[in-house]
Amino acid sequence: MIEPLPTADSTADAQRPFGAGPPSAFAPPTPWKRRLQIAGWVVAGLLALLMILIAWLAVTAPLSRSLEPVAPPSISLMSSDGHLIARRGAVIDKPVAIKDLPPHVPQAFMAIEDRRFYSHWGVDPRGIARAAWHNMWSDRSSQGGSTITQQLAKGVFLSADRTFGRKAREALIAFWLEAWLTKDQIFERYLSNVYFGDNVYGLRAAALHYFNREPEKLTIPQAAMLAGLLKAPSRLAPTTNLKGARARADLVTQAMVEAGYISKAQRDALPSARLNVRETADPTSGTYFADWVLPDARDRAGAVYGAQNVTTTLDWRIQRLAESAVRRAPLGKAEAALVAMKPDGSVVAMVGGRNYGKSSFNRAVQAKRQPGSTFKLFVYLAAFRAGMTPDDMIEDAPITTGTYRPANHGGKYRGRITLRQAFAVSSNVAAVRLTQKVGVDNVIEVARDLGVTAPLTEDLSLALGTSEIPLIELAEAYAAVAAGAYPVTAHGLPPEEQGWFDRLMRRQHRFREDQLEMIRDLLSSAANRGTGSAAALRTSTFGKTGTTQDSRDAIFVGYAGGLVTAVWIGNDDNAPLPGGAAGGGIPARIWRDFMARAINEPVENAPAEQKDSDLVNAIANVTVETGIGNMGLDVDQEGMTVNIGPAQIRLPADQAPAGPAPSPAQPQATPPPRMAPTQPPGSDAPP
């Protein structure tokens, strides 16, 4: 029986729109075929983008230049407003040949930098993955995934920026080098051009500089030390950080064991590398600031060759004002230093001494001197952290218990006074009493929080600034108060963009608002009505004086108008300054002279000293010598204090005689008034 032919679905035909034509004879595509088509289009689009990217890289990357001889490096340091600060060349020497080097020399570099150098094609995916895994789980150190070929491409042919475009060009040049050069040729170029610190480029120059021997004669410990320098050449340079260089060399020899280049027994028997530095020409660059910032500029640039202009934070106008202020000061034979920075730590001016040509020693950075009473900033901040306020009372009287017996300048004591008064007149005994109350450890904790890294003595004398601190660290601490956040790190180059992890680990901490307001209250009182009144400007001025034992150091640190400045004067041989100089004298006047011009405030002569009525001992201080010993007479609006030797008599205003102060016995034998005795550590003579 013949089956009837199927008939068209009349219902489906009825649903087709008019004019749509007959139904298709082909079945609609299945979903998996549709997805395959879309995937094909995506792949084609990505390939087109890849071709465009490769073409762009080929145009922008210096492929042809990568096979030419390398030009010597040089760096020009520029001020933030475009002035040339210094220009430096480099210490270089002849290239090295792999075949002439002992095997352990290239092995040391491969072990720590690129163990798969002879097996990859310029980029090592395995190394990149290993570095990423390490960086993800390590909270102390980071690893890079760049191969030796990539490092050569970056250092010699590209800029030092860290953009994706630069990394892509770096990879393309690495492939290009691998295609046109042998592995040994690439390695030779790398070793002959990489930066080793101390302004030295290339393995031969480094071997001669640090060990005074040719690279063909390097021992395993010496090769390991040189290989270890590449991580941070300036920071690890053994001429300035031998301990750090040796620690890094130990990591290199351990890596050589792990790579199978030497045995563990060989490593354990290795002695530490000993330096034999070859004397070279004076490497100074012509200014204190340039000497300070150049190592960071070198590290940031890496081994980048060719001429580079590096912009710094220095302000040319402000630098000239700083130098002029120091030149105008009546220093005699004493030295001076000044460092000025913005509250974020950007250094805009630096004077490391009176004459760079005679001495390139940077007293603003390299010298460690006692800060005197400027250290009291940390003592009073510790007190505020402990819950005290500027209006709390403290005894300004001799300390008669314990083994440590500090004294105030001139033997003057004011009885029970507020913390604000004690800070303004720079009372030594008050600072020591506060340190006893809050604890030395808490004072040290505050100093560390605000960026002080120098060793600090763990005893009560710390309150008077007996621990030696670089001037720049004092400026950083006061900058933290100006910024309202800590720590502040001084820097001479604009900060690099940080990753989220670095931002998280290095984030600043905000001061509590009440504590910040209180410490600023004290700094204002000291700078405007206390021992630092010679520094007071028309604008709001905050600061503190510091004077050390026998006037060996005189300091003023403060801020105004968005600028933080620290000034020091003293002698390089630590001899006392003539005339009992104090922080409220010449340093405060240098500070005011410089700051008034730097923040564009009209310059006037320093005003006569003015102090508020809340500052006990504010109107008159007289010390004379009598037949019964030194006699001190302190007069204020609340009364009079008479100091006769160790004894003290307080006469309130309602009991003081109406007439003139009584004359000491035997006035005819009394010599003219004389200068008060030299102050103890941390005290400050009024200007």
Mean pLDDT: 80
Radius of gyration: 35 Å
Shape call: globular
**Span between termini:** 130 Å
List the helices and strands and how they pair.
Blueprint lengths: L9 H6 L15 H30 L13 E5 L5 E5 L15 H10 L11 H13 L10 H10 L6 H17 L2 H11 L9 H9 L8 H9 L4 H4 L5 H17 L5 H5 L19 H14 L5 E5 L4 H13 L6 E7 L5 E5 L16 E2 L6 H10 L7 E4 L18 E4 H6 L3 H11 L1 H10 L19 E2 H13 L1 E2 L13 H6 L3 E2 L2 H16 L13 E6 L5 E8 L2 E8 L15 H13 L21 E7 L2 E8 L2 E6 L2 E6 L35
Parallel strand pairs: 1-3
Antiparallel strand pairs: 1-2, 4-5, 4-14, 6-9, 7-8, 10-11, 12-13, 13-14, 15-16, 16-17, 17-18
How would you characterize the overall build of this protein?
This protein is an alpha+beta fold and 687 residues long. Helices cover 37% and strands 13% of the residues. The chain has 22 helices and 18 strands. The chain has helices at residues 10-15, 31-60, 104-113, 125-137, 148-157, 164-180, 183-193, 203-211, 220-228, 233-236, 242-258, 264-268, 288-301, 316-328, 376-385, 419-424, 428-438, 440-449, 471-483, 500-505, 513-528, 586-598, and strands spanning 74-78, 84-88, 307-311, 335-341, 347-351, 368-369, 393-396, 415-418, 469-470, 485-486, 509-510, 542-547, 553-560, 563-570, 620-626, 629-636, 639-644, 647-652. The strands form six sheets. It has a five-stranded antiparallel sheet with strand order 5-4-14-13-12, sandwiched between helices. The longest helix is centred in the first third of the chain and has 30 residues, at 31-60. It is globular. The model is unreliable at 137-142, 606-637 and 653-680 (pLDDT under 50).
